[in-house]
Specification:
The chain has 547 residues and is of the alpha/beta class. 32% of the residues lie in helices and 20% in strands.
């Protein structure tokens, strides 16, 4: 009788617990399904906004949410922009949102000239009004049914060249940093404009070392604070800004397995926390990451990308940025293998010191890059450092069907590669694409053909079938060439004739049927007996459609 009663008591105690555990498991399973569905919603264009409209706010405007939104965001309501990745984190803890763990950036020292002459930081004024830049963006997204992620730059080091951004965490713990201003590491993150001497000389010292438990803990708490305090749809962990995460790497030592495991454990903690928040609020909280578009490069800097995908730690994958290393098809295949949508990053190069890279960010260059992304099977495109809401790209790049009939310019190399070697010794060894560009010109030698590739995302023959003849011009930029007749060019084995000289460019007119959708082989020959030593600096294909 006693045994029977004890059994009933144990059943009574254990029964509800088991049932509760079952209910909790069912809730977790249901939330996982919701998370997967949310991860695959339509994102034609992702807008990465660095939050600077509140930091460099026009001095002649009232500091209101409406005026903040008018600068970059509100005009995009009817565009292809479906998702905002909003960054309010500077230099590992200097924030543009309300925070108890970091510091609120209410001022920033800049030379009050040029662009900054009529600007002011209104973050403090917005907070006094009971809001902040992140809350303004969340409210906007809810009102207009847009998706909103908070973006954290995992190792932003703008504080290295702007001391007003240096957070207290780094001041109190210089031992967690890569070095000092007078003793910077050889490989460091990016802190200045392209070609900036100050950034190149000492910009990397202020990166934090993720091998330190205290650094990982601080990163986790900053992420958690936003996830629990703001109604965001997800968080982006931006490992590309900047892609130097360990002191060992910065000082040209191999990243260890223990260091990679430590970073993976941080991702696991973030996933566990976001799942807890998801269950509490009744809807999923997604995790996006931005990383280099090479598994091998990621591994070298401490990101175990394949493992993260295998373990289900990532919901969205954004690849690339200041440089592109691999065909986008590979990143898309990797993400899709694990059920993760992939978004190639198209970076604005309009401020690059090399003029040819600036023109790559006009509408024709953007269209070509976007078409390559769509042809590779991408789930959308991600725009970085493009802040002009009137730019046509916002209403063109998210629809590959209408995009195909727009004029484009394809280049052998879509953007600069200089950052690769700043971040990683011999970084170009990871590049499996063409490198022929104004940064890496190649000399022509008699009897030694220069071979390269050109990726073209569209099938130019579609227009011919519909009675629209595409105007195609293959351009080869050659310097120190005495006679254009000394150069012979073939496209996919077809000899191109009659190159016309346009400044430093030789332009040829290939037949549409000679142009492949995807990778195209180009050979450039210099005739024997030529005394000059011409140099090829660039390669492009112009595609224009008659209206």
């Amino acid at each position: 009788m006693i045994a029977c009663s004890l059994a009933l008591v144990l059943y009574a105690v254990a029964g509800p617990t088991a049932a509760g555990g079952s209910d909790e498991a069912a809730s977790q399973k249901e939330m996982e399904q919701k998370r997967k569905k949310a991860a695959h919603r339509q994102r034609r264009v992702i807008f990465n906004n660095d939050g600077n409209e509140a930091v460099y706010f026009p001095a002649d405007r009232e500091p209101t949410p409406e005026n903040v939104l008018a600068l970059r965001t509100a005009p995009l309501v009817d565009s292809h922009m479906d998702t905002i990745f909003y960054c309010t984190n500077r230099a590992f803890g200097m924030c543009l949102h309300k925070t108890k763990l970091g510091e609120i950036l209410t001022s920033e020292t800049r030379e009050k000239q040029g662009y900054y002459a009529d600007k002011r930081n209104i973050v403090g004024e917005l907070i006094n009004q009971g809001t902040d830049p992140l809350r303004i963006m969340v409210d906007f997204a809810r009102e207009h049914k847009k998706e909103i992620f908070w973006s954290m730059r995992m190792n932003d080091i703008h504080d290295a060249t702007n001391s007003s951004l240096l957070p207290q965490f780094k001041k109190l713990h210089p031992e967690y940093l890569f070095g000092t201003p007078k003793h910077p590491p050889p490989y460091k993150g990016f802190s200045g404009a392209w070609g900036s001497e100050s950034g190149a000389a000492w910009g990397g010292y202020s990166g934090v070392d993720y091998a330190q438990e205290e650094v990982r803990e601080h990163a986790f708490r900053l992420i958690e604070e936003v996830c629990r305090g703001y109604d965001v749809d997800g968080v982006e962990l931006d490992f590309f800004r900047s892609p130097v995460l360990f002191k060992s790497h910065a000082w040209d030592k191999p990243v260890t397995r223990e260091e990679r495991d430590a970073l993976t454990d941080l991702l696991r903690r973030v996933r566990g926390m976001t799942e807890e928040v998801s269950l509490h609020r009744g809807r999923p909280l997604l995790i996006a990451i931005r990383a280099p578009d090479s598994v091998e490069y990621c591994h070298a800097i401490g990101i175990d990308l394949e493992r993260w995908l295998q373990e289900g730690l990532v919901d969205l994958l954004a690849v690339g940025g200041d440089f592109v290393l691999s065909p986008w098809e590979e990143s898309v295949a990797l993400g899709h293998k694990h059920g993760v949508p992939v978004y190639p990053v198209l970076t604005n190069t309009a401020r690059h010191p090399i003029p040819e890279f600036r023109t790559r960010s006009n509408s024709h260059g953007y269209r070509a890059r976007a078409m390559n992304a769509w042809q590779a099977g991408a789930d959308g495109v991600y725009l970085f450092n493009l802040f002009d809401p009137s730019a046509p790209m916002w209403r063109e790049l998210g629809d590959p069907e209408s995009l195909r009939s727009l004029d484009k310019v394809y280049y052998a190399v879509s953007g600069p590669l200089e950052q690769v070697t700043r971040y990683q010794r011999n970084g170009l060894r990871f590049c499996r694409l063409a490198t022929l560009s104004p940064e890496y010109p190649e000399a022509l030698n008699p009897g030694e053909p220069l071979t390269t590739t050109l990726i073209v995302g569209e099938n130019v023959l579609w227009s011919k079938r519909e009675g629209v003849a595409p105007d195609l011009k293959l351009g080869v930029c050659v310097q120190d060439l005495d006679d254009p007749e000394d150069i012979r060019v073939t496209l996919n084995g077809h000899a191109l004739q009659g190159g016309l000289v346009v400044t430093d460019w030789l332009e040829y007119e290939p037949k549409p049927e000679w142009v492949r959708q995807g990778s195209n082989d180009v050979e450039i020959h210099l005739d024997s007996g030529v005394d000059a030593a011409p140099v090829v600096r660039d390669l492009r294909l112009r595609v224009a459609y008659e209206n």
